[in-house]
From TrEMBL:
It comes from the Bacteria. It is found in: Cell envelope. This is ABC transporter substrate-binding protein. It comes from Streptomyces carpaticus. The keyword NAD does not apply. The keyword Secreted does not apply. Transmembrane segments: none annotated. Keywords: Signal, Transport. Residues 61-448 form the Solute-binding protein family domain. Belongs to the bacterial solute-binding protein 5 family. PANTHER family: PERIPLASMIC BINDING COMPONENT OF ABC TRANSPORTER, PERIPLASMIC OLIGOPEPTIDE-BINDING PROTEIN-RELATED. Pfam families: SBP_bac_5. Its main location: other.
């Protein structure tokens, strides 16, 4: 990357209030909290909206934000009551009320219901159907919301100790009911929220300009500095978004590189250099290989075949050769740092596959080798190289014949959601800092990966973990769930990210910028 230290010659000096420019490789799909669950959207919106609860740095547990207090009012953990703080206002000056909170939740449920109705209606043309990708699956336990004076009461359909984590995330973002339609996604690129920042301007997939909200009333001390976010997308010439981010950093065009840099660039960064600041931590995002059970005629419908595919993965080689040791090999869907983390995939399959033995397993089961299947993947600086290495590993000793299939992100996600892939590689990031986020949605009824697999035993264990209010006591339950997941092998972990943020030497606050909660604390950034 060459002139990574060129920051000493760039940018304003001292204490002026020129914007801090942050570069990211993930652009939001929407700035409407009822419309999106992608990481980039949640990161941006966590700065623009308030929820009743939030996640404070270092604890990553729900704490009051727009609420004065929140808590379950019954021993069954099915009634959750919050008292809204008085005097809060939206960015347009209108006072926030409990009715706005109720509307914000009801709206998500209503849009989800509309999408389901129209999807099932043969009289509506496919192109005219309501397309919805909001966070309704995270509200699967929510039955009704009602207002009681200054209180908002959530009534749940079943015991759910994780509900406060949902409330604290962007799913619980409070919108002005006079500015947002109940059954329509807001698409004007504007925001009426009450978060630490106001959205001054927004150009989808290009940039977002944020300025401090002078009316913000919450638990955080907001920085005096405005923020400009630059979004980097793959170039028309095939250059990856990661390479373009690295180029912008190299040229001194950004103050903070908070997107994914290419592995070879990351490997060259010297954390002891005085020319820039570096903050490295264990991230919560994971990379998985998903194997579908519902593609008619696919060899992946057979558990034995999926187990052999899982056993052929050499994670150490992927982390070392492709990712240049910028990730950690992962042997559980629950990554390091979360309750319930273990090594069930290592315990069952090891990490030094014997292709001859695995070939014998399939031949004994009556298969004529090689077995053919398609492995899909999408964007990323090292994703081509990673997919090719995994292809080589799976084709060892003529066991599989893999056809790689690349799709742009815009078409990859709809195809994934429509269960069109028999196997694919994808990242998964936590919706909230609890192991349930790697369990309920991936292995439970939500089936976010569209594997088509369902297990009464796993679902029963999920319900048991949902009923435990002391989240530290769920360790054994989550370990059991993921031991079963390893045996079924519909979702196979590959690696866990190492989170790296690089910034100009005069930028502070990197250590609090992001944790495992999905909150992007841009207000923590300041300039010396």
């Amino acid at each position: 990357m060459g002139a990574i230290g060129g920051w000493l010659l760039f940018g304003p000096n001292g204490n002026d209030k020129d914007p801090i420019v942050v570069g990211s490789t993930s652009a939001p799909t929407s700035v409407d909290p009822g419309a999106a669950t992608d990481a980039a959207a949640w990161y941006l919106m966590s700065n623009l909206y308030q929820s009743l609860l939030t996640f404070v740095p270092g604890k990553e547990e729900p704490e009051p934000d727009a609420a004065e207090s929140c808590g379950f009012t019954d021993t069954e953990l099915t009634v959750y009551r919050c008292t809204l703080r008085e005097g809060l206002t939206f960015s347009n000056g209108r006072e926030m009320t409990p009715e706005d909170v109720k509307f914000s939740y009801d709206r998500i449920l209503a849009m989800g219901d509309r999408a389901d109705r129209e999807e099932a209606d043969p009289n509506i043309a496919e192109d005219d159907k309501f397309k919805y990708s909001g966070p309704i699956t995270l509200l699967s336990s929510l039955e009704t919301v009602r207002v009681d004076g200054q209180d908002i009461v959530f009534e749940l359909s079943h015991t759910d100790a994780t509900f406060p984590f949902i409330v604290a995330g962007t799913t619980g973002a409070i919108v002005d009911r006079e500015k947002y339609e109940e059954l329509e996604v807001r698409t004007d690129g504007k925001v009426d929220g009450s978060g630490p920042y106001l959205l001054k301007s927004y150009t989808p997939e290009v940039s977002a300009e944020l300025v401090p909200n002078p009316s913000y009333d919450g638990p955080y001390e907001v920085s005096d500095f405005p923020i400009t976010i630059r979004y980097f997308n793959p170039g028309e010439d095939g250059t990856s978004a990661e390479d373009l981010l690295a180029e912008a950093w190299d040229k001194g065009e950004i103050d903070v590189a908070d997107g994914k840099l290419p592995p070879d660039v990351v490997a060259e960064i010297n954390s002891a250099s005085p020319d820039y600041r570096v903050y490295e931590s264990t991230g919560g995002s994971i990379r998985v290989m998903t194997l579908s059970t519902q593609i008619e005629g696919s060899v992946m419908q057979d558990k034995t075949v999926r187990q052999v595919a899982a056993a052929l993965l050499d994670r150490q080689a992927i982390a070392r050769q492709v990712q240049r040791n910028t990730v950690e090999p992962l042997y559980s869907l629950i990554p390091v740092g979360f309750t319930g983390h273990g090594t069930p995939y290592h315990d069952l399959y090891g990490d030094a596959p014997d292709p001859a033995e695995l070939r014998g397993t399939l031949e004994s089961a009556g298969y004529e080798l090689p077995l053919s299947f398609t492995l899909a993947y999408s964007r990323g600086a090292a994703n081509h190289e990673e997919a090719e290495l995994i292809e080589q590993q799976l084709e060892a000793d003529g066991i599989f014949e893999v056809e790689l299939e690349y799709h742009e992100w815009s078409e990859f996600i709809p195809m994934k959601n429509n269960a069109e892939f028999e196997a694919y590689l994808i990242g998964w990031r936590p919706d909230y800092p609890d192991p349930a986020t790697f369990t309920d949605a991936l292995l439970g009824p939500g089936d976010s990966m569209r594997t088509g697999y369902a297990s009464d035993e796993i679902n029963g264990l999920i319900e048991e973990t949902q009923a435990e209010s002391d989240r530290g006591r769920t360790d054994q339950g989550f370990r059991q769930i993921h031991e079963l997941a390893a045996e079924v092998a519909t979702i196979v972990p590959v690696w866990q990210e190492k989170r790296l943020v690089v910034a100009a030497p005069d930028i502070t606050g990197l250590q609090h910028l992001q944790g495992s909660s999905g909150v992007w604390r841009l207000w923590e950034l300041s300039r010396l």
